[in-house]
Amino acid sequence: MVTENAITINNLTKSFKGFKLEIPHLEIPKGFATALIGENGAGKTTLLNILAGVRLDYKGQISCMGENFANGADNAKVKEKIGYTGPGNYYLPHWTVNQVEELTGLLFDDFNKDRFRQICMELAIFPDGNFAGKKKVKELSDGTKMKLMLAGMLARDTDLLIMDEPASPLDPVMREKLCDTIRGYIDSGAGEKSVFFSTHNVSDMEYVTDYAIIMEHGQVVEAGFVEDLKEKYILVKGDKEMEQAARPYLYSVSSNSYGFEGICLAENMNALAGMNLSTERPSLFQISVAVMKANSRIMMNKR
Question: For residues 99 and 133, what is the distance between their CA atoms, to the nearest angstrom?
Answer without folding.
Answer: 8
